[in-house]
Amino acid sequence: SLESIDPTSNLTALDIRTAIRNSTGPRPSLFVPEMAFDLLVKPQIKLLEIPSQRCVELVYEELIKICHTCGSTELSRYPRLQAKLIETVSDLLRERLGPASSYVESLISIQRAYINTNHPNFLGAAAAMSNVVSAKQERERKRLIQEERERR
Questions:
Q1: Cα Rg for the chain, rounded, in angstroms?
Q2: Residue pLDDT, tens place only, 126-150
């Protein structure tokens, strides 16, 4: 599943640091520059291509299984018709497998070509900083509560 894919599995802290430094030049940056972000994210999006193509293959295999098992009792009275129907549907599915794979490949390419950082679901720099500050404040609050309990 998509949850099992770690998008940072092949990124090291050094890779990230180098990309940020290369995109900002000698002047340090408070946030990750968009150029560095693109440089780091595009290869990660490419990692989705193999699982996506595997998904296309699994859907094809499942449709073939359904094709072979969904014959009715009336249809089984005509075995040649049933065989021809299964053959025709299988040919149609096989014929559409290539275009479906190409479409998935083009969708991945489209996503790599433009990363929409203005999307409402995209966590921007301000929201990221807000989350970091909130998490730090929450940890500090819990630490103070723990210290207060230990004093009693």
A1: 26
A2: 566 667 678 888 888 998 999 988 8
> What is the DSSP track for 46-91?
HTTHHHHHHHHHHHHHHHHHHHHH---HHHHTSHHHHHHHHHHHHH
* Average pLDDT value for residue range 14-30: 72
pLDDT digits (tens, 9 = 90+) for 62-72: 999 998 888 77
* Residues constituting the chain: 152
Q: Which residues contact 37 (CB under 8 A, 6 or more apart)?
A: 115, 117
Between CA 152 and CA 119 the distance in angstroms is 49
Cα dihedral: 113, 1, 12, 34 (round 10): 30
Residues 63, 85: Cα–Cα separation, whole Å: 14
3-state secondary structure at position 12: coil
The torsion defined by the Cα of 61, 63, 64 and 70, in degrees rounded to 10, comes to 140
Cβ atoms of 36 and 24 closer than 8 Å = yes
Query: Is this structure's pTM higher than 0.85?
Result: no
